[in-house]
From TrEMBL:
InterPro entries assigned to the protein according to its UniProt record, in alphabetical order: MoaC (IPR023045), MoaC_bact/euk (IPR047594), MoaC_sf (IPR036522), MoCo_biosynth_MoaA/MoaC (IPR050105), Mopterin_CF_biosynth-C_dom (IPR002820)
Secretion signal, residue range per the UniProt entry: none
Name of this protein: Cyclic pyranopterin monophosphate synthase
Keyword rRNA processing: no
Function: Catalyzes the conversion of (8S)-3',8-cyclo-7,8-dihydroguanosine 5'-triphosphate to cyclic pyranopterin monophosphate (cPMP).
Designated gene of the protein: moaC
Pfam family, one: MoaC
Organism expressing this protein natively: Falsiroseomonas selenitidurans
Length: 157
C-alpha cells in the first residue's frame, strides 16, 4: 500500500486515498476541559444561565460537530459515523470536563471527529456563558484512546 500523505505527486495538498484500505471497526476518545470562574460553574449547575441548558446544548453541539467534521477540517474524509457520545462533567470548583467517543466501521479513523466534538462542545459552553465570564479557558483537548486500523491501539499516558 502506498504511504499515506496529504500531498499529491506534484506536491499539492490532496485528500489521502484510502480506497485500498479494508473497513475495520474504529473508535476514538478525546477529552478536554473548559475552566471558568467558580461563580460561572455554579450558574451552569443551577440552570441559571440566561441562554438555557448549557450542558444539554453543548452535548448536542458536540455530536452535531462530529458529524460535520469533514465540512470543517480540510482534507478530512466524510464518514458515516455509527456512534457519537459527548459527556460533560462539572468539576468543582471551576471546570467542565468533556469527553467524546466516536465509532465507525470504515477505512479511516475518527480521531478528528472526537477532537472536533470536544472542541465545539467547549466553544458552545464559552458562547453560552461569555456574558458572565469572558476569562474562560479551553484546555487539554487531546486524543486519549484510538483503536482499529493498521496502526492499532493508542492509549494516552
Amino acid at each position: 500500500m502506498p504511504r499515506l500523505t496529504h500531498f499529491d505527486a506534484a506536491g499539492a495538498a490532496a485528500m489521502v486515498d484510502v480506497s485500498a484500505k479494508a473497513d475495520t471497526d474504529r473508535t476514538a476518545i478525546a477529552r478536554g476541559r473548559i475552566v471558568m470562574a467558580p461563580e460561572t460553574l455554579a450558574l451552569i449547575r443551577q440552570g441559571q444561565v440566561g441562554k438555557g441548558d448549557v450542558l444539554g446544548v453543548a452535548r448536542i453541539a458536540g455530536i452535531m460537530a462530529a458529524k460535520r467534521t469533514a465540512d470543517l477540517i480540510p482534507l478530512c474524509h466524510p464518514l458515516a459515523l455509527a456512534k457519537v457520545t459527548v459527556d460533560l462533567t462539572p468539576v468543582e470548583p471551576d471546570a467542565v470536563e468533556i469527553e467524546a467517543l466516536v465509532k465507525v466501521t470504515g477505512q479511516t479513523g475518527v480521531e478528528m471527529e472526537a477532537l472536533t466534538a470536544v472542541s465545539v462542545a467547549a466553544l458552545t459552553i464559552y458562547d453560552m456563558c461569555k456574558a458572565a465570564d469572558r476569562g474562560m479557558r479551553i484546555e487539554s483537548v487531546r486524543v486519549v484512546h484510538k483503536s482499529g486500523g493498521k496502526s492499532g491501539t493508542y492509549e494516552a499516558s
